[in-house]
Specification:
The strands form two sheets. Strands 1-6-5-7-4-3-2 form a seven-stranded antiparallel beta sheet. It has a two-stranded antiparallel ribbon with strand order 8-9. The longest helix is centred in the C-terminal third of the chain and has 10 residues. Helices cover 15% and strands 44% of the residues. It is mainly β.
């Protein structure tokens, strides 16, 4: 799986909490908007609480001015935690990749 620092020109942009009306959902899920305009739902975890799902894309995320900023993306697990520690991120956002007939989908 590809691992890389995220730059401002990368495709995913913070699109806010899943549901501002429900505080529990707002804390647990975050929407990120891709370059095609579609939103993707990510689960939000503290750095040391994120599970090591084998088929997930992880993002190291820092809060800046009330918005979330993606600093790194790659596989879930030890590499995601290491990226968080190295870059000062407070959260790991995970997106489980769906299975297809040809296997897991690659991150977009």
């Amino acid at each position: 799986m590809l691992t890389h620092p995220v730059t401002s020109s990368d495709s995913l942009k913070d699109d806010g909490p899943l549901s501002a009306a429900d505080a529990l959902l707002a804390r647990r899920f975050r929407l990120w908007r891709g370059p095609d305009g579609r939103r993707q739902v990510y689960s939000v975890y503290g750095v040391d609480e994120a599970p090591d799902y084998p088929d997930a894309v992880a993002m190291a995320v820092r809060t800046e001015g009330g918005r979330r900023v993606a600093l790194w993306s790659g596989p879930a697990g030890a590499r995601a935690r290491a990226a968080c520690y190295a870059m000062g991120a407070q959260e790991i956002h995970l997106r489980i990749l769906p299975e297809t007939d040809s296997g897991a989908l690659a991150p977009s």
